User: Which sequence fits this backbone?
């Protein structure tokens, strides 16, 4: 049986555990978001990939069965880059622009998460200082 890994980008928070479990298939970018090898997974890597799916804290990693070559499924599948290449004029963006926007959003999301932690921790720190 062959399978492929897929990421639900809405759920993924960049913990990077998946890349630690299956470094042969998943590479991590500088923010620990997964970069997945599109080739089918089989053999002993299939067990490690299933373990990575099970251990993902956000349940953003999905293991799907890969379409067989004889069924013609691989020819009908488009990768994200190929899909965007079909519409270069409709968006006005190339892949570098989209990657830059993704990085800006990830950075803003992390800053927001850190600021909310500081805001929640601030009243407690103030009350401890007033007591002491």
Assistant:
């Amino acid at each position: 049986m062959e399978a492929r890994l897929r990421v639900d980008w809405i759920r993924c928070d960049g913990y990077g555990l998946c890349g630690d479990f299956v470094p042969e298939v998943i590479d991590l970018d500088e923010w620990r978001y997964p970069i997945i090898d599109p080739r089918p997974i089989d053999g002993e890597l299939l067990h490690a990939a299933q373990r990575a799916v099970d251990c993902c804290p956000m349940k953003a990693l999905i293991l799907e069965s890969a379409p067989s070559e004889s069924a013609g499924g691989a020819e009908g599948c488009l990768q994200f880059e190929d899909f965007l290449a079909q519409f270069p004029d409709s968006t006005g963006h190339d892949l570098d622009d989209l990657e830059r926007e993704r990085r800006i959003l990830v950075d803003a999301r992390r800053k927001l998460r850190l600021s909310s932690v500081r805001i929640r921790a601030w009243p407690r720190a103030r009350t401890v200082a007033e007591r002491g």
